[in-house]
Specification:
Blueprint lengths: L2 H9 L15 H21 L10 H10 L7 H28 L6 E14 L4 E10 L2 E3 L2 E6 L11 E11 L7 H10 L1 E15 L3 H16 L2 H12 L7 H9 L10 H17 L7 H18 L4 H18 L6 H15 L7 H34 L6 H8 L8 H31 L1 E3 L2 H28 L5 H4 L1 H16 L6 E3 L5 H12 L9 H23 L1
Parallel strand pairs: 4-6
Antiparallel strand pairs: 1-2, 1-5, 2-3, 2-4, 5-6, 7-8
Helix pairs in contact: 2-4, 2-12, 3-4, 6-7, 6-10, 6-16, 7-18, 9-10, 9-11, 9-16, 10-11, 11-12, 12-13, 13-15, 15-16, 15-19, 19-20
Length: about 550
């Protein structure tokens, strides 16, 4: 095909490669999708009596998908990809099945039991501690247990303490109707629940991540006021238990509660800080592989302190894959990195797919990957129309440069516009993809989200790494220095809290709408057709997108009228 013919086809919006592909095959992304489908199928098979015969639909579905990605001549590639995707499906299926079967504990009754505290959950009524290294009546138990206890008993309990309790142990019943809340404990292996009115602490065992987590919290509490300390622990560690319920709800309604869910915003900031150190300090003399190892070590330790949540692991994998690709001079693909990180998480914890944090974290990333570029193009076209309607008069220097065929450096206003447009496109892409999930799980979508994200996301990105290192320095020094070292963060967070105490962000929300998982799928499908990931004419994509929007609208009317 001649160059002129290829350019004409590209102008017309046809595929760049005349191979009959509808979209490009990304093995890691498709593998993660099939693994997720395997987990979902196993869930309905295990709890909703879905017939195993429905598996017969899997094979033609995968085959049809692959024939949209490859030309008909690539039979060998299609066969290999088919087998690989089938394997991913069954890895997800049997992985979740193993989790569910492992959950069937056989301990019930009144017992004395002991274990190590790995998590503390506080609420208005009682305190719950999660125990591992569990012994029931002196016999080792492979499961974990959550013990509900009087809050007064837990005042002196910290992570990694050994406790001895007495109470009534029961099986932790699986609740399929609200499985998203239960899935977190399923993934952690918590299969027993106990009501323990009495007990005592017997000692403390060293655990690197748990002890550092406790040390950081104690240092923050000793050096800051109660409100700023609670926010600092939430931003650095994802622990929101210390934030007052009304204040936290106001922050959620403002659409920025994600700054307290340690994810790409936090890990990306820390990763950027580590890369900066390796480039601008004496560390740049180290071999590249050692620079990568040190950066990976910092991220892994931080992820461990934050309990290796799904959002932390996702961000860590993406950052390290991108860093390795850059060091090896290999171009990395964001969608492939997302697929790899999802696969890693689901491989070790298939139930994570059902948690709200996992879904929101990946929905936001997919929104950025699919929609940020099209939204940015809309901004660019709008800017062109504005410049055409209100042309700027060129300076003499610019006119002379154009006459001499010199390249004009971008003006400050142009650079500012690009930065703002890029940020807005990224933020909008994430919010568009997460909106139906927020509506489904929390019952509302914030109308303040875009404005407040424009303020707090850059702010957190700028201060996170500095705040983390300041707190770590305060942990190393004697406790009396904490007040001095943390004085400035204390003042900053006190000022920020004034905003959320003075303004009611519950006043501007979309709420009261019912939405189901099926309607969410229609919504996501509609948005996907407005991306540039399809090798088809824009008119076809527009037609399909509008069709799914109409289907979504009909579904929402049926649900809410």
């Amino acid at each position: 095909m001649s160059l002129g013919m290829r350019m004409m086809k590209e102008k017309a919006g046809l595929p760049k490669r005349n191979e009959g592909k509808l979209f490009n095959f990304r093995p890691l992304l498709f593998g993660a999708i099939l693994m997720s489908l395997g987990v979902v199928f196993c869930f309905h098979y295990s709890f909703n009596n879905l017939s195993i015969a429905w598996l017969l639909c899997l094979f033609p579905l995968i085959a049809a998908l692959l024939f949209l990605c490859f030309s008909f001549g690539d039979i060998v590639k299609i066969a290999v990809a088919f087998l690989a995707l089938c394997a991913c499906f069954f890895i997800g299926f049997f992985g979740f099945l193993a989790q569910v079967h492992r959950f069937d504990a056989d301990v019930e009754g009144e017992y004395y039991f002991s274990g190590r505290v790995v998590e503390i959950r506080e609420n208005a009524y009682n305190t719950a501690v999660v125990l591992d290294d569990l012994y029931v009546d002196g016999e080792r138990c492979k499961d974990k247990l959550i013990a509900y206890m009087p809050t007064s008993f837990c005042e002196d309990i910290v992570l990694s303490d050994q406790v001895f309790l007495h109470g009534d142990i029961q099986k932790y019943e699986i609740e399929t109707e609200n499985f998203s809340l239960f899935a977190k404990d399923l993934g952690k292996g918590v299969s027993l629940a106990a009501y323990a009115p009495e007990g005592y602490k017997t000692g403390h065992t060293f655990h690197l991540f748990l002890d550092v987590n406790t040390k950081v919290k104690n240092t923050i509490d000793s050096g800051m006021d109660e409100g700023p300390a609670a926010v600092t622990k939430a931003v650095l560690l994802g622990d929101t238990s210390g934030i007052e319920a009304d204040l936290y709800e106001n922050i959620r309604r403002g659409g920025i509660a994600h700054i307290f869910a340690v994810s790409g915003l936090h890990v990306g900031s820390l990763f950027g800080f580590c890369v900066l150190l390796t480039k601008k300090t004496a560390l740049r003399r180290l071999p590249l592989w050692l620079q990568f190892f040190l950066t990976a070590f910092v991220l892994v330790v931080y992820a461990g302190i934050c309990a290796f949540t799904a959002s932390v692991l996702r961000a860590m994998v993406i950052c390290l894959v991108a860093y390795a690709g850059r060091l090896l001079q290999i171009k990395t693909d964001f969608l492939q990195s997302l697929g790899l990180s999802a696969s890693v998480i689901l491989l070790f914890d298939p139930a994570a797919l059902f948690t709200v944090g996992f879904q929101l974290s990946f929905a936001a990333c997919f929104g950025i990957a699919f929609l940020s570029k099209p939204i940015g193009q809309v901004f660019d076209e709008t800017a062109k129309l504005y410049r055409k309607a209100f042309p700027r008069k060129l300076t003499k220097a610019e006119i002379d440069a154009i006459k001499n065929d010199d390249t004009l450096p971008p003006r400050l206003s142009t650079r500012a516009y690009r930065a703002i447009a890029s940020f807005l496109a990224t933020s909008l892409g994430a919010q568009i993809f997460t909106a139906p999930l927020l509506l489904q799980y929390f019952g509302y979508v914030s109308g303040w989200a875009l404005l407040l994200n424009c303020i707090f996301v850059p702010f957190i990105s700028a201060v996170f790494s500095i705040l983390l290192w300041v707190v770590l320095i305060a942990c190393v020094l004697p406790v009396d220095f904490a007040v001095v070292i943390l004085y400035l963060p204390n003042v900053i967070w006190s000022t920020v809290l004034l905003l959320f105490e003075a303004v009611d962000f519950t006043s501007f929300c979309i709420e009261g709408l019912k939405i189901t998982s099926a309607a969410t799928v229609l919504y996501i499908a509609a948005t996907l057709f407005f991306t540039d990931k399809w090798n088809m004419k824009k008119s076809y994509r527009l037609f399909c997108g509008i069709g799914f929007i109409l289907a979504f609208g009909i579904a929402m009317v049926a649900l809410n009228v």
